[in-house]
């Protein structure tokens, strides 16, 4: 396989491929494997030469796990992007280099089915599914990882030999724990996933059109926007409370609202508006959206703009809420600090939100709240490695900046905001009655730092709760030399 070094015309392009421009790596060279054997060869070469090797699929890592100056060889999975139906395993085979958008497209056009995965079409399937992966359809169909049937992994054994292995969720598969670790353990931990096989748990037949959920024919989107200037502390609090209360009432696995997924954007005042966006599927979509907004937006008594439209599924999936991913979005440097909630924010927390979001600091960002639960909560915490199965909201304090000079102010703002938001539990959302930890697909290295995590609860518990010891056992078995590691990787 060809080494792509700095004198190759492809090098600069490959070096630029990363969502979060906050981090920059300096690999000696890239590999673009086209087969599992290519990946085995590249990993063996790295082990023999004692060079640090890391894999990248879609490049959407929010931390610097891939764009890390200590990485010497970077495997880019882009050319392994095939999607087909494997009749032998009665499952869809998706190579790790496929994007989420391409997976939506091929599954829909080929078989009319859908994988309930993440929101941005450019995310790589490779680094996404193994972190759990939630999105617009998660309340109706669960996490992407809940539909994972098998993986193919390139790993390195105790003798330093690179090899490939297939692990399935079949009860009698001796490698079942390796499959399990890829249902929420996160990327860059055990080896390089080359292929995923997808099949829903309840699907046993050989008909591909029933192997995954049927895709919606159409999806109804809604957008609501308020002028920030019309909000005082009381109205702001009411909005945040209404959203939390709605999520608390309507996030059971069989909730009549499980087809509805909603986002509340509590933006910083600098951005000028507060917004809701969401989607709903099914014949009752308009009614459910009306009822949702009647519980959250209408009681404020403020005028707001409201747009509701029905879009064919694939058109939406390949370009969801284009205004969220505006030009310039791909030049951003960002910090996201994620938290799961089991209960709505308290009044004190909402007061903290108001303080940080209405102050005069010249920052861009806010606090996003996404509805969670529904069918995600139909799965037991230990059944997959995605332990958070009792949460109603996933929230994130976030900031973005273009000019490197704004980095310090932006980071200080978002870090202090998050720390104060969870002040009663040491600055982080420890698993307790109200909060439920964090999601590894939105990694945050601050959780390892005693300045920002004063809870006494290790970051591993925040991400994995009781599943961490089992993940460590998988790590010991499948990556005993810790070839695959980063700042938040599973320890030996
Ligand atoms: C704009 C944006 C929107 C997002 N939306 C969502 C969302 O809706 N839902 C959600 O759950 N998450 C979301 N995420 C988070 C996203 O799922 C994770 O960042 C995911 O890890 C990205 O995968 P990737 O392959 O694109 O990233 P990469 O940067 O390529 O990799 C991320 C990590 O996974 C590892 N990895 C990559 N490929 C493999 C592989 N083949 N085998 C083993 N390890 C691998 C990498 O080494 C790295 O540690 C979003 C992120 C962004 C930037």
From TrEMBL:
Signal peptide: none annotated. InterPro entries: BBE, FAD-bd_PCMH, FAD-bd_PCMH-like_sf, FAD-bd_PCMH_sub2, FAD-linked_Oxidoreductase, Oxid_FAD_bind_N, Oxy_OxRdtase_FAD_BS. Its cofactor is FAD. Belongs to the oxygen-dependent FAD-linked oxidoreductase family. Keywords: FAD, Flavoprotein, Oxidoreductase. This is FAD/FMN-containing dehydrogenase. It comes from the Bacteria. Residues 23-203 form the FAD-binding PCMH-type domain. It comes from Chitinophaga rupis. One of its GO terms (molecular function) is oxidoreductase activity. It holds the Pfam family FAD_binding_4.
